[in-house]
Amino acid sequence: MAQMTMIQAITNALHTELKNDENVLVFGEDVGQNGGVFRATEGLQEEFGEERVFDTPLAESGIIGLAVGMSTQNLRPVPEIQFFGFVFEAMDAVSGQAARMRYRSGGRWNAPMTIRSPFGGGVHTPELHADSLEGLMAQQPGLKVVIPSNPYDAKGLLIQSIRDNDPVIFLEHMKLYRSFREEVPEEEYTIDLGKANVKREGNDITFVAYGAMVHAALKAADELKEEGIEAEVIDLRTVAPVDIDTIIESVEKTNRAVVIQEAQKQAGIAASIVSEIQERSILHLEAPVLRVTAPDTVYPFSEAEEVWLPNHKDIVEKAKQSINF
Amino acid sequence: MSFKNPLEGIEEKFEMIQILDEDGQIVDEDNVPDLSDDDLVELMRRMVYTRVLDQRSIALNRQGRLGFYAPTAGQEASQLGSHFAMEKEDFLLPAYRDVPQLIFHGLPLYQAFLFSRGHYHGNQMPEDVNAVSPQIIIGAQITQAAGVAYGFKHNGKKNVALTYTGDGGASQGDFYEGVNFAGAYKAPAIFVVQNNQFAISVPVEKQSAAETIAQKAAAAGVPGYLVDGMDVLAVYKVVKEARDRAVNGEGPTLIETMTYRYGPHTMAGDDPTRYRTDDMDDKWEKRDPLVRFRKYLEGKDLWSEEKENEIVETAKEEIKEAIKKADKQDKQKVTDLISIMYDELPQNLEEQMEEYKEKESK
Ligand SMILES: Cc1ncc(C[n+]2csc(CCOP(=O)(O)OP(=O)(O)O)c2C)c(N)n1
Ligand SMILES: [Mg+2]
């Protein structure tokens, strides 16, 4: 076992799969000699060669289109979009093509690619670097969307994503890259896609979160404990497909829920989870299911980030609103 | 093969245009642009000012007093020589490294600093500044430039759209689309590709099999020129001619300027030693745009050390004042951002406006 940051766990997972499967290719802007702008691919070109780990010309639609084509040649591409806001450049290749490859060929072809990309707020990036666009991705049938909240999960989920035979969008929250270390086994292991993780047990209220918001939810739970309120915290790990069973089991125990996302409120993952809960468990609910989200503006210019982003205080407030309903 | 390779001889068609060599000597007498002594001095003043601004911006970034910043040293001739050919009414679509052109197009310096800090007022062009704020998405400005140019033509205005991208940017689909559209409409656009040899860490050789970026214009039926981007006279001359053609209804031009950025890609953790050598840096620094233009002006008795020092001091003073003014700007609020989302606020934002007013009053 070793102590790793999330970025190290990601490098470790890429290394594992490059070694396990010669069809795995890692490519994108600056991922070769430079090792990626966050150093996620550090040392990989040196070890596996330029044929398997390489820089691309600067064009996101080209990068993902390339991956779609490679899929027909028995390859398993792991392209990187340097920051997820740039995925707009590649929307047709991602949603119009990769996601529909299996469907439009009646199963003759598939697109077993894993698109890795940093995203997430709080690190003062310029426009279109920090946006949470997972809702947009999750709305596209054919894609899976994975968002780890910690180093251990990042490794197991990334290996599983690469092995998955359908396209996976693997989103890495920038704030979590180096914010803490934890034990991560050197040997390989996988974590199933579509399975949530109960990070903390409690009987009074359920928090459903993913990515960096898992940590805000845990912090809120700590604060509430001092007032005698026990929150259960669910880390979704995969936002498409969502692990409804785990959520429902928890909500039917606590009878209250707050769904938390860093993204804006309109449409979105949280809205869809709220619907799922009320459709299945309305008679178990003691209060409306509430959401904690960012407001419905474009992701803010960085000076306003701190106020704009949801935080643990917002979660505590909503939890109390639910409990006092 | 029995057919002639159409690429044969293409290098000769896209030879690099130079007017002033590295020693400040005129090498192409016939093409020296028609600029007054005052213009020549003003060009040099802008380059010196920009070099100082670059040094100060890097220092301010390191002190945490500026945010996002993309260094400009090495690219002054490419940036300011091209912009010098513009008229005030022409429209500028810069990329993130092209803040100097915006400043000389009229953006107050304190606003450039606010842009760096991530304050929306930094993106709010004053009424008399025909420009959009620096583009972060590589290539997006290029198709938009075709649209601005279409508008000029449609409205019968004798103006041009000037846009910038880099060697990396020339790989984007948007690049080909923008140049092709402007060509198809014979729209008055000028596309400057500043080839500073790298897109972050990726060397230009890895972007394309093409020998030059300039030749990519040929596929769109648009003239393309390769220019020494560290020779301010050559850059100015080629862009000026492109502008003349554009306002004459002869359509767009693509111009590749060969240059180099001395600094890191941005101040956000890029380490150039990972992808380039000291030798390469030295080779390019020998071609420095300020050094050679200074020599040229000194030879004409138009420049002196005192004059340069004066400009440096003025620049430092103006930078200090601009930072002070930026510091005094009201903190950006979420409610400000809500209010600029739409012409009329929809119901969800009206509600959130109240919510955030309350939050902000605490
Ligand atoms: C669509 C898009 N993809 C990727 C990036 C990240 N990025 C910012 S600058 C850059 C390199 C650009 O190189 P070049 O076009 O040569 O311009 P330079 O920075 O050298 O001036 C990259 C990859 C981006 N901002 N937008
Ligand atoms: Mg470049």
UniProtKB/TrEMBL annotation, chain A:
Residues 4-179 form the Transketolase-like pyrimidine-binding domain. GO terms for molecular function: oxidoreductase activity. Keywords: Oxidoreductase, Pyruvate, Thiamine pyrophosphate. SUPFAM superfamilies: Thiamin diphosphate-binding fold (THDP-binding), TK C-terminal domain-like. The keyword Oxidoreductase applies. Its cofactor is thiamine diphosphate. PANTHER family: PYRUVATE DEHYDROGENASE E1 COMPONENT BETA SUBUNIT, PYRUVATE DEHYDROGENASE E1 COMPONENT SUBUNIT BETA. This is Pyruvate dehydrogenase E1 component subunit beta. It comes from Alkalibacillus haloalkaliphilus. The lineage of its organism: Bacteria, Bacillati, Bacillota, Bacilli, Bacillales. The gene is pdhB.
